């Protein structure tokens, strides 16, 4: 569970008076509250709150999610996908190892986005002999650095230097290579995720040994009734064995839980019915988008992947993180809570947390009705905590009616709240 630091958050009840002149100084500090109290600054000119209200934030999130789910995304034919690859690795100057690195990183990022390390640690990556298999080898390396425990099944190794180098990189990390004959028929007991990186959009014909048996192994895995008792299947770009444009023609192919499309989804992705569809790569330049009329969603922030298609339904009651933190004993903390706060605040700043001074401020009006909002900490000393507000805000009115308030700092990455 997160760590807590509790301090009194009461202040002397002091009315919030209007400024004494039309041209006041920017900020007025109220009389100092008692020790361990709560101080704040009041500005005469109205200021917007740091963050939108919870209602506004939720509305914005819902709008963004709905827009992403409803967005029309271009799906490529096999020929267009091949042509785009030729353009990228021809006049546009990309090399195959560059694209493979970006693709593999995208796959690893998408996996980490959905399948949390605390619950899905052991990852089996089954790699084919071509570029799709190379994407899987790169993904294995990144997953290792993300903290996962990857295992690689690579039965038909390609002798080209690029692939040999990828194998060497994995061997230097002591990532195990598992022969096909050593794989259990039921993968559920030994692996938490299985990544299908056998065949991509350029594959033709019928899979030959040993990939035909490996595909059937994943088919058997994907038809297990209770998905909670089997490892999810993640397919890279194309579920192996599917027709690139028509999908699972026979109806007896792999049914992955996640599909990570690369560059742009292929036509078969329209037949994908799993809960998680991501687009990865983030390397399509404007000339390609313009020439092929590609409609692709924007990537969020610095992420290498973006969710597309329907938003999966979520069982809220099942959302739970397992917190693993060192023990905190009373004799390990400082007698003065403000000294302890400064120590922990400095740790949060050093850790590079985004806005470690963001805090939830809860006030209560004279009727006993509480309200909360996010503000920024502007100072702290033995007298209390300082933030900015204005005379017309709800929090200012609340504090003029009821001097009791509470602050909450939530530092998720450190499993700590104060």
TrEMBL record:
Binds 1 potassium ion per subunit. It is an enzyme of class 5 (isomerase). Its cofactor is K(+). Its EC number is 5.1.99.6. It comes from Triticum aestivum (Wheat). K(+) binds at residues 132, 196, 240. This is NAD(P)H-hydrate epimerase. One of its GO terms (molecular function) is metal ion binding. The keyword NAD applies. It holds the Pfam family PNPOx_N. Keywords: Isomerase, Metal-binding, NAD, NADP, Nucleotide-binding, Potassium. Residues 81-296 form the YjeF N-terminal domain. (6S)-NADPHX binds at residues 131-135, 200-206, 237.
